[in-house]
């Protein structure tokens, strides 16, 4: 993919108009469009400036793969498996296993909460049934139930 096309896609993703980026680069709109259409060549200075405006790397502008290495991975499981540290101290195998299990359980509970929230919001009869069965207070509406569930989950993992 050409650089101009990459910049077009990044600009669209970030929600900038052509005019906003052209102004930020001190270019007339016709010149900017010509660059974005790859009808003109970008200068290094322009590429650096557009990367700054769009808050992306030059690698992203060039369309280079953003494959993460183990050292730059943001996947928590990967980080834990490769010797993560906490407060300057490397975690023991036991601490690593405990942290992975805690994160796994949190992830499962969070997804269950999201599924339950969606069900409550999408099924108005469900709230009525819960009220009839006296599982929830008759004064609670679906949003109040969702807030209570959110608070419950967050409270479970507060330190």
Automatic annotation (TrEMBL):
<dbReference type="InterPro" id="IPR010982">
    <property type="entry name" value="Lambda_DNA-bd_dom_sf"/>
</dbReference>
<protein>
    <recommendedName>
        <fullName>HTH cro/C1-type domain-containing protein</fullName>
    </recommendedName>
</protein>
<dbReference type="InterPro" id="IPR001387">
    <property type="entry name" value="Cro/C1-type_HTH"/>
</dbReference>
<feature type="domain" description="HTH cro/C1-type">
    <location>
        <begin position="9"/>
        <end position="61"/>
    </location>
</feature>
